[in-house]
Structures are given as C-alpha cells and as structure tokens.
Amino acid sequence: MKIVALGLLVALCISCRRERNEGSVREAVLSVGQTVEAINKNGKVRISYLSPLRRKYEWDTEHRTVGLKPRRERFDGKLGIYDPADAWIFNLRKIRLVLDEATRNFDSDERARAALVESSAYMDWVYTPDGFVVGFGRAPSRHQININVFQFLIRGQKPTNLPGSRPDQISVTYSK
Fold it and tell me: Left if phi > 0, otherwise alpha if psi is -120 to 50, otherwise beta: which for 63?
C-alpha cells in the first residue's frame, strides 16, 4: 500500500513539473493543431504539434515523438524549444534527432538570408515569403537527422518577401 501511494506521489510530482515546464515555453513556432510538411533535397519531413513541449517528427519511413526542452536563456539569439539528442557514441544503432524550434529576430532581410547561407553546408532550408523556415538535414556518419523550425522576423515583424523563398515546398495545416 505504501509503495502504491509513493508511486502516485511521484507520478503527481512529474506531472506538475511537466506542466510547469510547458507553461514556460517562450518563442516556439508551432501552435495547437498545427502540422508543417516540407520537402527539400534531403526528402520530406513532417512536424506535428502535440503539446507545448511535444512534437511528432516523421521522415522517410521513420517517426518519433519527442519531448523538447524549453530554453531558459537565449542561445544564438533564440529561446523556443530544442533537443540536442544523445551522444552518438552511446547510441550507434538508433538515429539521433537534433531538433530546434524558435522565433528568430533579425535587423534586416540580408542578416536573415546570411543566417540561412552560413548553415547551408549541413542544412537545406525551405521557407515561405513571410519567414516560416524549415530545415531538414542528414549527417549519416553521426547517425543523425537535424530538423529545425523557425519563424524569422525582421525588426520584430514577419517579412513579406524573404528572398529565396520556396513556398511550394512547405505546407502548413491545422487540425481541429
């Protein structure tokens, strides 16, 4: 009986901690019921919102539901949510997912474009004219998939015509 009571208490504490963390998510991109699908040179990826800290990722014939971590402090100008994945040395058979989702604010269209160009060696980006950005990359030697979802802002506002956009390669849907 005491073991059951202790187990219930632990479950309650975990649940409260999770709710507290979900309430602290700032500058994430996806919202309730939203799914984004993007196609680039690495294939097709689909990301679905499940809760403030949970997303479902689908690529090739694989899928994984992941609990992400909220950023407490800015890293590379970003808050949002992320998962840096486990160290690949300890996980040789399982594909590692390195994930990032955040709003990114730039001073100009040129700086936003430069952010995409500087990381294009490992990530193929597709994005809409209003700055909805999805990156899907593969690092086979590390057994790694990188998936990023960003909302780019220019001086706090969504751009209207971000240069290089490929809106035909992204679709955003909402479920009820």
Answer: beta
